[in-house]
Amino acid sequence: MKVIIDRFEGDYAVVETEDKIMVNLPKSLIPGAKEGDVISISIDEEETKQRKDNISKLMDDLWQ
Asked: Which domains can be identified in the chain, with CATH numbers?
């Protein structure tokens, strides 16, 4: 998904989605970004799987 920074309001960037929906995004998540920048948002499936596997291992170790 791509969003475009429309403007900044306080600690938030107001971004417009591909569906023309306006959303507030904390500026801390996009350091150095400016109005008009296009930001890509994606899911990192491999890292998600690694984290789930790690948590599962930690839980198994805890209960043994």
From this structure: 2-63 (2.30.30)
Q: What is the DSSP string of 15-51?
A: EEETTS-EEEEEGGGSTT--TT-EEE----HHHHHHH
CA dist., res. 18 & res. 11, Å (int): 23
Q: Note whether 12 and 27 are within 8 A (CB).
A: yes
* Cβ–Cβ < 8 Å for 2, 36: no
Count of residues in the chain? 64
Residues 13-62: pLDDT tens digits?
A: 999 999 999 999 999 999 999 999 999 999 999 999 999 999 999 999 98
Please give the structure tokens belonging to residue 41: 């948002």
Which helix (H) or strand (E) segment is 9 a member of?
strand 2-9
